[in-house]
Structures are given as C-alpha cells and as structure tokens.
Design brief:
With 81 residues, the protein is an alpha+beta fold. The chain has one domain: Herpes Virus-1, CATH 3.30.40. It has helices at 26-38, 53-63; strands at 13-14, 23-24, 42-43, 50-51. The longest helix has 13 residues, at 26-38. It is elongated. The structure holds zinc ion (2 copies). One zinc ion is lined by residues 15, 17, 20, 22, 32, 36-37. One zinc ion binds next to loops. This is C2H2-type domain-containing protein. It comes from Thelephora terrestris.
Length: 81
C-alpha cells in the first residue's frame, strides 16, 4: 500500500539543471529531466519555435529573430569567405 507514491522512487535528489530546484526520487527525477529539460517541451516566447530547454538561452541570445533583447553584436560577423 502506497501512502503517497512520491517517495517510492528511492532517495530524493535535487535536479542538477541550472536554475531548477526540483527535488524528487530517482525515477521521478529522470522523468522530470526528460519531460522538462531534454524534450521539446519549451517554445520560444517570441517566435514560438519549439526548443530543447537547454537550447533556449542560445536561441534567445543568438538565433531568435523575434527577441527584442537579442544581442545584435553577431550581425557584423556575417561575412564568411
Ligand atoms: Zn529540473
Ligand atoms: Zn525565438
């Protein structure tokens, strides 16, 4: 009989992803990482492109055309011979 089903996955561990404070059991944590960090669960708030969570920051800073806060420094590097 499970009481809560939450502590059934082993010792709770903290998610190691940057900025993520989730703490849960091993199996749940794996699933959490898959669902929240590794899958295409995130979309860019500006252009709605679906992204891996760990690619969002790169996308936002370099690739997103719709992001008003994008760094524009890269533009001059466009020449490539
Ligand atoms: Zn996490
Ligand atoms: Zn975007």
């Amino acid at each position: 009989m499970k009481k809560h089903g939450l502590l059934d996955d082993g010792t709770p561990q903290r998610c190691g992803w940057h900025g993520c404070r989730v703490t849960m059991g091993g199996r749940s944590l794996n699933r959490h990482v898959l669902m929240n960090h590794l899958d295409f669960k995130t979309s860019c708030p500006y252009c709605k492109l679906r992204l891996r969570t760990d690619h969002v920051s790169v996308h936002l800073s370099k690739r997103c055309r719709a992001n008003p806060a994008k760094e524009v420094k890269e533009v001059k590097k466009a020449k490539r011979v």
